[in-house]
Fold this sequence. Notes:
Blueprint: H1 10-22, H2 26-33, H3 37-44, H4 52-62, H5 66-92
Helix pairs in contact: 1-3, 2-3, 4-5
Amino acid sequence: MSKKIPPLHPGEVLLEEFLKPMNISQNQLGRGLGVSARRINEIVHSKRSITADTALRLARYFGNSPQFWLGLQMDYDLDVETDRLSSRLDKEVERLSYA
């Protein structure tokens, strides 16, 4: 049986696909977005989610869409919750049956 790949936090994508290749520091990004470097650091270290506010700022800064950033966050959140709840859902939630 193969092991499941752990969920990928959007902060890791931000760090590995944007900051490192573009040689942008967390402080520089924070200044560019008009937010604290701490906020960026917490996102990069998977301690903070990307909110709609942050997604709009990142999209404007990098020239992509807020949906890209929120999509990463949504995928991560669903993956984490699926792992956490999968065994309980079958027991706790009944399926609607059409009679």
